[in-house]
């Protein structure tokens, strides 16, 4: 991202009178933390609006459907698509041919992810290969998208790339990250399978042009997919009932970086009025309880109470001493539940698996499992689950087992950390991100081990 790209973005956004970008803030590129929004002058007070972006500059299912219909009048969704009085599509524009292969039923059955990935791939990448002389309306937004390098630490991204030395890190991913990575990979591959047929139609349609191969299109699709995934913001989208489809992409807002503190910094607000194409309303960012007073202080938006495993897999970064971190010790605890009767009892009461430890607490699920293993007393454990018996009774009995869990988990993390540190072929930033997760785990485990020995 360059200063010129930012200037073009702001110029584009300000073509609407509904756009608001406070003159108290500016975008700053920092070598350590990357780009972000900082306080330039004056003060920003609680509930003060700092950014407001109208719906015509947002990328979501509705806005994409509207723009597709500009080149395909067969796409008719009342209140969303272009109406006939707005003029005929430009027959010379290759998008008229490309988008003309789509029908309303096909488009409406696509998920928001699938439609946005397909549309951005067409407008950002394929348009010039089709010989289009007109720049996409969204080009200023595309120009400030994160680069492939910005997103390279996302495990699912380097897992799915044709050639990435960081694939060697996959066996070193902790269980929570490995599970998250597999889930995202399945989603990406499913979405690619859904839109691949349309891309193949386009490739045949423009076979006489210097188009890129389907394999190259997949690489671009991956980049775009993770741009969407890391930059989308939740908001209800009409026509879509699935929560996963309810999101929008908002220029400038995506410059705001994450902070782990919840309910203090900036927060989003979507206006129910001022909707365009029947879609979402004007998207604004307002200052939370934390007022900004210090020049060059960074302005933050909390993305949610997320662990480093989540942040790495969804956004491609980690946070030092993340207060929302936890370690999954399911494998260790399950290995200690040897009796089939114990497994059956825990399954029956929904206490089997999903065993975690956070910095401030060991999950009750862990304690219940260890209490059963330690005592074999089903009646008392049942009362323990119901709150009739406390840790005063069970604590001394499962104490040695809990210590074993902590020690075994620490040994695993220390070994994995050493293996990651010795990794020389993988991308260094990707490696450091995995190392950061294990360091967070060890911080949690050492805290509990210290408390256990006090």
TrEMBL record:
A GO molecular-function annotation: histone H3K36 methyltransferase activity
Origin: domain of life: Eukaryota
Keyword S-adenosyl-L-methionine: yes
One of the GO BP terms on file: methylation
Name listed for the protein in its UniProt record: AGL108Cp
InterPro entries: SET_dom, SET_dom_sf, SET_MeTrfase, SETD3_SETD6_MTase, SETD4_SET
Keywords for this protein: Methyltransferase, S-adenosyl-L-methionine, Transferase
Residues annotated as domain SET: 23-304
UniProt keyword annotation of Methyltransferase present: yes
């Amino acid at each position: 991202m360059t200063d010129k790209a930012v200037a073009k973005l702001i110029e584009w956004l300000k073509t609407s009178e509904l756009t608001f970008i406070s003159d108290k803030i500016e975008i700053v590129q920092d070598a350590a933390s990357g780009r972000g929004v900082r306080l330039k002058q004056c003060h920003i007070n609680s509930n003060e609006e700092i950014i407001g972006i109208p719906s015509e500059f947002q990328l979501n299912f509705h806005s994409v459907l509207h723009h597709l219909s500009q080149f395909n009048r067969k796409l008719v969704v009342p209140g969303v698509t272009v109406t006939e009085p707005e003029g005929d599509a430009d027959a010379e524009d290759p998008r008229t041919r490309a988008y003309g292969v789509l029908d309303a039923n096909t488009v409406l059955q696509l998920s928001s992810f699938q439609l946005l990935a397909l549309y951005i791939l067409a407008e950002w990448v394929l348009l010039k290969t089709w010989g289009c002389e007109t720049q996409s309306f969204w080009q200023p937004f595309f120009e400030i998208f994160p680069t492939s390098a910005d997103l390279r630490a996302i495990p699912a991204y380097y897992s799915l790339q044709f050639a990435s030395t960081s694939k060697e890190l996959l066996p070193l991913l902790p269980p929570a990250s490995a599970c998250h990575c597999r889930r995202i990979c399945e989603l990406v591959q499913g979405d690619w399978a859904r839109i691949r047929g349309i891309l193949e139609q386009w490739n045949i349609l423009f076979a006489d042009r210097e188009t890129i191969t389907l394999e190259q299109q997949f690489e671009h699709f991956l980049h775009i997919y993770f741009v969407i995934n890391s930059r989308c913001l939740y908001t209800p989208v009409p026509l879509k009932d699935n929560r996963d489809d309810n999101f929008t992409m908002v220029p400038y807002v995506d410059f705001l970086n994450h902070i782990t503190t919840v309910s203090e910094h900036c927060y989003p607000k979507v206006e129910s009025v001022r909707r365009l194409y029947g879609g979402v309303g004007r998207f604004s960012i307002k200052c939370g309880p934390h007022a900004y007073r210090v020049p060059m202080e960074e302005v933050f938006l909390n993305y949610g109470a997320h662990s480093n495993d989540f942040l790495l897999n969804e956004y491609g970064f980690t946070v030092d001493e993340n207060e929302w971190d936890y370690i999954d010790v399911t494998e260790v605890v399950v290995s200690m539940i040897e009796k089939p009767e114990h497994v059956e009892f825990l399954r029956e009461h929904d206490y089997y698996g999903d065993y975690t430890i956070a910095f401030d607490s060991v999950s009750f699920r862990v304690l219940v499992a260890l209490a059963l293993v330690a005592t074999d007393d089903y009646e008392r454990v049942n009362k323990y689950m119901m709150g009739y018996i406390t840790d005063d009774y069970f604590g001394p009995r499962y104490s040695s087992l809990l210590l074993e869990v902590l020690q075994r988990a620490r040994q695993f993390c220390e070994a994995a950390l050493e293996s990651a540190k010795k990794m020389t072929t993988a991308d260094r930033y990707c490696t450091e991100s995995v190392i950061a997760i294990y360091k967070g785990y060890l911080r949690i485990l050492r805290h509990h081990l210290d408390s256990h020995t006090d």
